[in-house]
Amino acid sequence: MNHVVTKPTFKFALILATFSALGPFTVDMYLSSLPKITDFFGTNASMVQASLTASLLGLGLGPIVMGPLSDVHGRRNPLLITMILYVLASVGCAFAPNIEVFIALRFIQGFVASAGLVISRAIVRDTYSGVEMTKFVSLLTMISNIAPLISPVAGSTVTAYTSWIGVFIFLGILGIFLLVVTKWGVQETLPVEQRVSSNFLEILRNYKALLKDRNFMGFALVNGIMFAGVFAYVAGTPFIYQNIYGVSPMMFSILFALNGGAIMLGSQIVKLLAGRMTAQRIFKVGLSLGFLSTGTVMTVVFSQGSLIALVSSLFLFAVAIGIIGPVTFSLAMESQGHIAGSASAVLGIMPFLLGAFASPIVGIAGEYSAIPFGTLLFATSLASIFAYFVLVKRSERAVYPETTHS
């Protein structure tokens, strides 16, 4: 490991959080413009929604390429190139001649935007270790979680003064800003002697090694499974709150923002506890809170409980997510310094893969039933506990057969 920084800095976290925020801004900023884009291209809603699917697909597949690239060529140069491509793709979206080109450019936009998340995480692993990495990741998470809250509002603000084209011009300007930040504000954190071979088979072997690492995959699966629950929450609550409990769109926005704040609270709890408790113990606190809160959600749903009971239990679930996210990253990445980019890619893609399966299940009983939602949320908690005990605890016992307890 190189360049160990002893004290996390807010400025450094803000820079990396801005790169992490590129994904949410890419996906969310244009959502309010979908009807206008439909009219502009003279197409149907499903074709325009395909552009959203394309950007999500790009964000999901991008890490597989971006992670190894950063292990081979360092962190800074891939970040520079992807930011240039992001600017070009954003401007291309603004002036796309037809919906087909627009969809293709949205995929490219999402694909290169994924570099911001993957490489920023790899930079964290290059720079910090142990308790300091846990503290820094919790700070990074807290800042990053603001992006999904403000990006839809930012998009609506832009379209209040311009057309939908203004959203993509704004994203292009954001890309230029990040390009400038990369050029003059980001130092290379992976020395040449620590980089991996560009041999394709070597890259595949690195991924194979990660998949065979029980400890790493255990934490990666826990994180991915729990965040699949977040995808279920995002897909299910608009219908549950508005159709079943009759809340207004404005109240729904407030409740949605409340849980965004809960995730930030959870990450702040991690920052406060790091150094006072081991990362493993903090992780178990988050996992236990996730189990209790999702169990409560399922109980409320099956008993058709009050809105306050549902909101409260979902708030605690969001706090648990805020705790689990930073800690699982630190625990998973601790021993992956030599292939931090590839490891970050696996951690980044896991929630998308599992979330893709979770989201459609929420609506299988229709828009007026919350039963699948409550059941699925509790199931993700059980599955994450199962993954932890089968993979992480067993690997601990294999290494420390006489000393591993708890």
Automatic annotation (TrEMBL):
The keyword Nucleotide-binding does not apply. Its main location: membrane. SUPFAM superfamilies: MFS general substrate transporter. GO terms for cellular component: plasma membrane. One of its GO terms (biological process) is xenobiotic detoxification by transmembrane export across the plasma membrane. GO terms for molecular function: xenobiotic transmembrane transporter activity. PANTHER family: MAJOR FACILITATOR SUPERFAMILY, POLYAMINE TRANSPORTER 2-RELATED. This is Bcr/CflA family efflux transporter. It comes from Paenibacillus prosopidis. The lineage of its organism: Bacteria, Bacillati, Bacillota, Bacilli, Bacillales.
